[in-house]
Amino acid sequence: MVEVISIGEALIQFNAVTKGPLRHVTLFEKHVAGAEANVAVCVSRLGRSAAFIGRVGNDEFGECIKSWLRGEGVDTRWVKTDPDAPTGIYFVQRGYPIPNRSSMVYYRRMSAGSRLSPEDVKEEAFVDAKILHFTGITPALSPTAKEAVLRALDLAKKAGVKVSVDTNIRLPLWPSLEEAAKVLMPMVEKADILFTDPTDAEILIGESDPDKILTAFRGIGIDTVVVKLGEKGAVALSGEESAKAEAIQVTVEDPIGAGDAFAGTFLACRLAGRNLLESLRKATLVGSLVTTVRGDQEMIPTHRDLDVVYRYYYP
Ligand code: KDG
Fold first, then answer.
1. Active centre residues (catalytic)
2. Closest ligand 1 atom, CA of 34?
């Protein structure tokens, strides 16, 4: 039995070892990344079970992703090796032009991951699963990837599996903001758990005020709505509960991946029966931890270490 099924594109990240424009960077560090793969690893490291559905190329980077995921305890039985396309990669430029911010340069068009198709989504994956998780990245990758997500949504609903969506609108992947909203809103409306932020919510529903975002998404029937506010923490509503968590102060090395660690931690905490406030605080803590190093997954703690850091900040 797998608790969290995550579907998307796992990628190899080449993170600039030094800050500044990529034209001057000579050293890059290799990491396994990709939003939904990050969530699967986070859920697994925090002691819950996770599987990843996606495609990698028949190449060294594909091997790297598969063995990394396996090593992290993620179920890879639905990771397909596509002989006809390479594993997608991207580069991270750090601290330039905006200090403490990173940007991504993708080399993923026609990648194996973007060839994800409905036939990769097997009905058996949803038997006894608790949560399906995907982000707004995957439906933007290709028409077949969008169809794969729609099939996963459909199978999840039929099997009584809760749907978790992180809006994650990556502008370089969409032809226009209108198209992003048009494709994503019908998926978002089917979510039981929604992660978003003011920038994405502005695109989707024309709201950027956190309280109004919560109310608007609750108004369309989403049970749990979480608004990530970066260095300002996060706010959430779930059923009858509401919560607000402050972010901890850290020195930022690379913020990429923080949102996935946040979502993965929140899901793992909810699966473990934690209340909304504790789940939100832990998610915010892990999101902050991830920003202190390069790489999306390395700083995600084990569940034992999460308890240590949680007791430190909330004695
Ligand atoms: O959230 C981090 C991810 O954005 C990163 O690992 C790359 O999945 C990625 C993407 O498509 O942007």
1. 260
2. 8
In degrees and rounded to multiples of 5, residue 163 shows phi and psi of -110, 125
| Residue 112 near residue 56 (C-beta atoms within 8 A) | yes
Beta carbon of 290 within 6 Å of any ligand 1 atom: no
Q: Are strands 50-57 and 102-107 parallel, antiparallel or unpaired?
A: unpaired
And the tokens for 246?
Answer: 């402050």
- In three-state secondary structure terms, 180 is helix
**Chain centre distance of CA 5:** 12
Which residue is it, tokens 């502005």? 202
Q: Is 146 helix (H, G, I), strand (E, B) or coil?
A: helix
pLDDT, tens digit, for every residue of 269-301?
Answer: 999 999 999 999 999 999 999 999 999 999 999
Rounded alpha-carbon distances, angstroms, from residue 178 to 107, 135, 148, 174: 24, 17, 21, 9
Q: How many CB atoms are located within 10 Å of the residue 71 CB?
A: 10
